[in-house]
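Late entry, evening session. Most of the bench is empty. Finally got around to the prediction I had been postponing all week. Sequence below, unchanged from the version circulated by S.P.
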Amino acid sequence: MNKVFEPCEIELADSRGDPNRAIEIQKKVEELLGANCQRQEGIRQEILEEGAWALPGLLNSTYVWMNQLERDSVSTEMLSQLMADLAKGNQAATRLLFDSGVFENPFETPRRIAWQALEKLNWKPEQDDLRNVKHEIIHQKRLGNTAAVLDLYKILLWSGNPAELESAMLDCQQWVQQSMDSAGKLLKIMLANYPDSTIEILTNVLLSAKDDYRDINIANMLVTPLRPIPIQWWVKNTILDVAKAVLKECTPPRHTTIEYLILYGAMDYKKSAPEHWNEHIVELNDQIFKYTEELQQNLAESIRRYWMQAMASAGESQLVIDAAFSDDEDWASVAALQLFFGEKGKSAKQKQVYKQAQEELKFQKPFRYQRAQQSFQEISAKKKDKDEIRRTNRQGTLTSRRDAEDNK
């Protein structure tokens, strides 16, 4: 019986609804945002008693207090849940949420709140909706409104259609090449909606930065939105499969985004599930050794170096030291090199641990020690030369500017 007198699609077609009712709801929302937890529940019930009639006013209130809501994740969650509760079981109200709350909404924060409500309702777009969304994506790209494009892609990719993934992939690759932060956000949306295509998505996107494989900004831009990196990506060899697919296309086999994926993948694993990490880290280390054992030497060396760097950053110094003294020369050489980099770490205690390990390696495996030391010196020299070039370029630029100013 509660649904008999609910508004129909025609009555909710205008998001402004009844102005008087909308203003009443806005006042209640203002009170809701400023009340304590106990009072909030009472106000929430008052709004719910209005039924779907309250939805237009609730949507409008997200515009009015948009700046406040932008910084308040607790309130945005509360309002999105309230919208979902009001629209539940009412097709017209759900349509209003999509049309006025998301599709026609020019503001990022109110659009996000309405979209979260639709997610809670497990709403799915119809074919007409998808066609309209695709046209709107093209329109918003022309306007340069990437925030709107990202929100529209959330709708489009929720369909799970492979054809939609292809268009999103092309945009993501283009954004990577333009070093746009939106690339990492779109990458996250694609991975969330197409988990079975994780390796394909990551590989294609990372390869679009093949020519900028040393770019730290691109690496951060792509990896940061994905954190915490899922533990399952280790269990299923996803990270290793992506590393292999990307690095074999790079000359030399280096890619900073792969390095960060391995580094933060290990650190996130240890932080989010420390007990599981402690129980399985040796097993994971063996897994990576066996996986890379089947690869070409230069490809295996790159992945192993990234892994040893990750182990050092994760505080697993003993694992690095044990590898440096192991019988497999290729595996041990990479770990031995990490002993020298470990000595440059921030922790005085860790520096001493790596220094002592170096001395033991020098005594027990002198040739291995010499090769690692030589590699470290060569790498350090190259890094020093690059830093010097950067400084010289900056100084030259500053000098040129001063000369130009003096000649004015």
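Two things to note before I forget:
The chain is about 75% helix and 0% strand.
Confidence is low (pLDDT under 50) at residues 1-16, 396-408.
Will write this up properly tomorrow.
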